[in-house]
Amino acid sequence: MPRQLLQRCLDCNAWCLQTICPTCGGKAQAAAPLKWSPEDHRANVRRQLNKVESAEWTQSIPTLPSLDEMRAGAHQKEEE
Length: 80
Known about the structure:
Low-confidence stretches: none
Number of helices: 3
Shape: flat
Radius of gyration: 23 Å
Structural class: alpha+beta
Distance between the termini: 52 Å
Largest sheet: 3 strands, antiparallel
C-alpha cells in the first residue's frame, strides 16, 4: 500500500490512486512528499522552534467541555 494515496505515473504523468498506472501500466509514485516523515531526524528541532514543549503551548490547545458542562448546556437549551 502506498504511503500517500495520490500517485503520479512516471511514464505518462497520469494521476491515479494505485502504484501501477491504470492508463499505461507504468510505475506510479507519490505525487508529493509526506509532510512529516516517520524517520524525521530533525523533529526535536522543529518542536523547539514551535515551542511545543512549553507550558504556554499546552495551555493554548482548545479543550472540549466536560460532560457536566455539556449536560448543563443541554438543559438550558431545553428550558428556552
